[in-house]
Amino acid sequence: MSINNAGLLMYDLMSELYPICRSITGDGFRESLKILQREIPIEIHEVPTGTQVLDWTVPNEWNIRDAYIKNSAGDKIVDFKQSNLHVLNYSTPIHEKISLAELKQHLFSIPEQPNWIPYRTSYYRENWGFCVTHRLLESLAEDEYEVCIDSTLQAGHLTYGEYFLPGETADEILISCHSCHPSLCNDNLSGMVLATFLAKSLQAAPRRYAYRFLFIPGTIGSLTWLSRNEDKVQNIKHGLVVACVGDPGKSTYKKCRRGNAEIDRAVIHVLQHSGQAFEIQEFSPYGYDERQYCSPGFNLPVGSLTRTPHGRYPEYHTSADNLDLVQPEYLADSLSKYLAVMDVLEHNKKFLNTNPKGEPQLGRRGLYSALGGRKDSNQYEMAMLWVLNFSDGEHSLLDIADKSGIAFSALREAAKALSDCGLLIET
Ligand code: ZN
Predict the structure, then answer these.
(1) 233-277 pLDDT, tens digit each
(2) What is the residue range of 253's domain?
(3) Most buried one in 60, 113, 151, 304, CB count within 10 A?
């Protein structure tokens, strides 16, 4: 599977998931996981309403079948079947006739973007409402309106998906994405499809690390997983929260709370050598599920690699975060960066130079002749010299990459050649 082809396949999968009305609980979430199960064997967990998860409680399960607003002439002026964003996510059921003034108390719009429907939720405070374009809101005349939200909010379950891919060691890399948003592409169908295709790619390769993929509702899902898996948390050596990976903006990395963890250095290295603009942000206790993984009682080395971060693109949490905003080429570019980060983590080892007194004679060992005609032979030679000099058992390949400015992939290749002829041993 080429990376460009993966971009197209991720886009197709996203298009299939796009119409489903997801929320932090309910059948839309389950249906989405079942679609992803065609690609990777995700295990589906169901946690009952009322379960204590750290300081929180699993809420009632929400499901919705239909919703609309009709005017007195019987015209549907707002229809859930046109866009699931039209309903305030987690709305309680209602079927009443009300005045315009009363209706307006339950309408949400974006005056600055009069043609877009906002995405709003009310998970932890019971309410009902409709999200509409500002253009529609402004056009509403005095009338008696029929509002109908055919939903249920009752005891059920919180659903999440987990795919564990074992490695040679018990050490784990965590990949987590919130999967609770309805028809919104960049935030976060892009993260769901990227995590799925990252898992597919890693399945096929030898792995030092185990990988744990979580498809969870935002906040309550990571709290639930952490609360049920405190014994596994110590195995997580690195992690990334995947979100907003399909828009045209530049890659952005938000560091974990520790700030100088191996994951931070691996991602920054990959972005520095990507040949593209990028941005690095320090950790802050706001954002996606890294907030929970990096809470002080866990303090896991989990950062977040996105493109334009949440809240920083105008389409964010609106109907304009759609299949036009996200494009296959950006999904593919993001996936290639995630794969490069995993490659650094997999191969970031320490070596020992077996001939540390003076430089070993590389030509005698065929290490120069092997380079004949390579355009990058100079860089490759430099990579060998750097690896030999700093392979003292103290410096990892990523340390050497940072010191030398040479790409990790070149150092890795040099270390392989030097190991093959006995000049390096892995510590
Ligand atoms: Zn969001």
Answers:
(1) 999 999 999 999 999 999 999 999 999 999 999 999 999 999 999
(2) 3-59+157-347
(3) 304
Residues 21 and 81 in one domain: no
CB 251 within 8 A of CB 306: yes
* Cα 226 to averaged position of ligand 1 atoms, centre (Å): 20
In the reported structure, the alpha carbon of residue 178 is separated from the centroid of ligand 1 by a whole-number distance in angstroms of 8
165's CB contacts (< 8 A; 6+ apart) are 199, 202, 203, 207, 210, 211, 212, 213
pTM score over 0.90: yes
Q: How far is the CA of 186 from the centre of ligand 1 (A)?
A: 9
Residues 49-103: tens digit of each pLDDT? 999 999 999 999 999 999 999 999 999 999 999 999 999 999 999 999 999 999 9
Q: Report CA-CA distances (Å) from 136 to 132, 133, 140, 149, 375.
A: 7, 5, 7, 19, 61
Same domain? 146 vs 211: no
**Could you tell me if 112 and 141 lie in one domain?**
yes
Region of 358 please: left (phi>0), alpha (psi -120 to 50) or beta: left
Around ion ligand 1, residues with a beta carbon closer than 5 Å are: 187
User: Does an H or E element contain 424, and which?
Assistant: strand 424-426
| Residue 272: CATH number of its domain | 3.40.630.10
Distance of CA 425 to the CA centre of its chain: 36
Among 174, 222, 171, 232, CA closest to 199: 174
Looking at the fold, whether 305 and 342 belong to one and the same domain comes out as yes
Answer whether residue 370 shows pLDDT above 70: no
Say how many Å lie between the CA of residue 199 and the centre of ligand 1: 23
Same domain, 398 and 413: yes
C-alpha 104 – ligand 1 centre gap (Å): 25
Contacts of 416 (CB under 8 A, 6+ apart): none
